[in-house]
Here is the input.
Amino acid sequence: MRELAGDLSLLSINTATLRKQLALSAVIEACARRGIGGLSPWRDQVQAAGLAQVARHLKDARLVLTGYCRGGFFPATDAAGLRAALEDNRRAVDEAKALGAPCLVLVAGALPGALAGKPSHKDIRLARAQVHDGIAATLQYARGVGMPLAIEPLHPMQGADRACINTLEHALDICDALDPGRTGALGVALDVYHVWWDPKLAGQIARAGA
Amino acid sequence: MRELAGDLSLLSINTATLRKQLALSAVIEACARRGIGGLSPWRDQVQAAGLAQVARHLKDARLVLTGYCRGGFFPATDAAGLRAALEDNRRAVDEAKALGAPCLVLVAGALPGALAGKPSHKDIRLARAQVHDGIAATLQYARGVGMPLAIEPLHPMQGADRACINTLEHALDICDALDPGRTGALGVALDVYHVWWDPKLAGQIARAGA
Here is the structure.
């Protein structure tokens, strides 16, 4: 942290970390006051404050977005649920665009109902197939809007309830499959909290940057 | 489970699951009475009951061991600690031999002190290097005794405190490095509790069995 001590403009705050302490407008003010340069806001906090108001506030405060959290949660138990997830992801893409975010972060989702403690099944292959198809469909829409998507692998301890993409390698395999030309429309977001354990991490980061 | 209902001889009980309910001798009796065919005993339970007594009891009860739990926990903060871990693993190999176990299961270990809540460092690469060297040294001894070693990858949620080998692929990479001829002296033990989340699981199981 010593190198950063004089340059907080390199820091970006994920607003989920302050959800319980501050409203989004107060987070924006606090970051601007301290010279913190970036912000990754969450959808619920943006919706509570109003999309247009937040966009204006960010501009006035000269804060740069480093991502918009989050799309994803694609798996569902029926066609209507899958469709609703895709519609919600399209709205998230539009919001990210309105805010000037550089990407929409995707937390894939996993077994339907698991986050509420009642998984409707235990077929992680099915969830992964639905995630693949959900990203493919959202990517098609996001390309049109000009909003990159960033797949965030989550720690395997959350593989059943939050995200069934649990390694950087898996995320990059999906990128290669859905964006073989590496157009920049699909990439990854990495959180050290989720990936520190991965023995292939360094090699896969090199792959991502190649 | 329907297929197994008539043939409990295919089941093996890991005695850690009954540690709080029964002494090892009572577990052996209970398994034999129910026609359960196998047992994977733990070192502390064997030591409490006496190695020779347990070996005789298992033979009388006609229970087959499916493994002996466990060696490993190789990382340490100094040379004396590393040496002590190797000595302890040699004792575990000898005990496994005395019991007629088909393999000694290795839980690698991770950051020294982490299991007690006080990790002495956070260098997982160092821990992994020490695990690699510890398995290599133990393998040399175990080959002489004729006792196969089985590396058990643990879920990444235990990557800091119990085992820094967290995928089957990583375990098999170590097997290939240390037993390139696939002599059967080094293999893996899989627990679905630890590996269910792994997107490469099926492919790596095929690799292990190739």
User: Anything to note?
Assistant: Strands of chain B lie at 12-14, 38-40, 64-65, 68-72, 104-107, 149-151, 186-188.
